[in-house]
Amino acid sequence: MSYPQHKKSMVIKGVGAVSPAGWSTQQMVEQTLSVDPLGYEKWAREGCDHSYKIRRVPKPLERQAFARHPRLRRASAISRFVAAAGLQALGEQRAAAVAAGELRLGIVVVFSTGCVTYTRRFFEEMLDDPALASPILFPETVFNAPASHLAAILGSKGISYTLLGDGAEYLSGLKIAEGWLATHQCDGCLVIGGEELDWLISEAVHLFSRDLVLAEGAGALYLERPEGEGADAIKLAQITPTRIYTQDCERDLAPSKMRADLELDQTVEEGALLIDGLQGVNKTDRAEAAAWESWRGSQLSPGIVLGTALGASVSWQCVHAVSLLQQQYQQCDHALVSAVGLNQQCMAAHFSS
Questions:
Q1: Is 91 contained in some domain?
Q2: 46 within a domain of the structure (yes/no)
Q3: What whole-number distance in Å separates Cα of residue 67 and Cα of residue 327?
Q4: Confidence at residue 61, expressed as pLDDT on a 0 to 100 scale
Q5: What is the CATH number of the domain that holds 238?
Q6: Is 46 in the same domain as 191?
Q7: Exposure on the CB side of residue 43, measured as CA atoms within 13 A
Q8: pLDDT digit string (tens) for 129-187?
Q9: pLDDT exceeding 90 applies to what percent of the chain?
Q10: How many domains is the chain built from?
């Protein structure tokens, strides 16, 4: 689907995050700025000799009000992460406006694996004894379940998509939001990336490298059109074209082409903060590290601190970019997000204040 090009950058009006650092954006950003990697636990499937490093989202200190909604009674962890991050980004006033029908909300949810915990449990039961497999689990195996739960919590009747891809797919979600806003299909749009832990994901991800630390959580941006915005607004200035990994553009080459697609002048680079996707693992970091080797500006690597969260990782990078621009971190007025997916594509985003 293509949309007409808009003349003005879209504006980021809210951010939200759930991560191994906690249930708020502030906890996540403070943890990253400490440059102190979170501890991890080792997790092994029953009957498996190998254990894997993971970082879970901690239990909330108190039960959130949204968790009492009937739609979340049997929902999997990923639905709770998506709802929490989305509601943070939207804020109470806008949530009330959505419920009253005064704000037409678009929702884009992005996953790499989606509701895998309940899917795995359902098929385990089917293989064990089909007559006893619980039909209650089945609705939670649907990829669109988290987006549906969030819309139900908000009372939103607006347009909603769920995208599947590697970590870089989150930027495709932002492109879709831009299109919806430019064509007035909604008044505001939530774009949320999320993931939950399961042994099935852990074993699959560690085929790329045993040194990766798998994490879970969600990150969200809330976007609107830039009508009447002041000069201090955080804008989504650019998303580069998608660089699909092919024989002509292998993963080792794609990040360098992605960086060139940003077409940054020296003035922008000097005042920019780079939020990269490095994980502290040479095997998966090599191509991205080479692409940004000449970067001399400020740079942060949330993945080294928080872990590899697949569909949530780039959403966390974007939340960091917006939050730190709002805080005028190191007097930066531009932030770049380098989104290098594990197995499909890479893209980059440019945010400015």
A1: yes
A2: yes
A3: 30
A4: 79
A5: 3.40.47.10
A6: yes
A7: 18
A8: 887 777 777 777 788 899 999 999 999 999 999 999 999 999 999 999 999 999 999 99
A9: 69
A10: 2
pLDDT category, 35, cuts 50, 70, 90? confident
Domain membership flag for residue 1? no
Dihedral sign from CA coordinates of 203, 205, 210, 211: negative
What contacts 7, CB < 8 A, 6 or more positions away?
A: none
CA-only gyration radius of the chain, Å? 20
Evaluate if residue 5 carries a pLDDT over 50.
Answer: no
Residue tagged 């959403």 (tokens): 315
CA–CA gap between residue 66 and residue 58 (Å, rounded) = 17
Identify the pLDDT of residue 126: 80
Rounded Cα distance, 183 and 66, in Å: 31
**Type of residue numbered 73:** R
299 and 166, same domain (yes or no): no
Quick one: 144 and 51 in the same domain? yes
Q: How many CA atoms lie within 13 A of 110 on its CB side?
A: 28
Asked whether residue 194 falls in the same domain as residue 252, the answer is: no
Q: Give domain status of residue 5, yes or no.
A: no
- Per-residue exposure over 267-286, b if at least 16 CB sit within 10 Å of its own CB, e if not: ebbebbbbbbbbbbbeebbe
Assess contact for 339 and 168: CB atoms under 8 A: yes
Dump pLDDT digits (tens) for 217-257.
999 999 999 986 655 689 999 999 999 999 888 999 999 99
Whether residue 23 contacts residue 330, with contact meaning beta carbons closer than 8 Å, is answered with: no
Q: Which two tokens stand for residue 151?
A: 């819309």
Does 261 lie in the same domain as 169? no
Q: 253: domain range?
A: 234-352
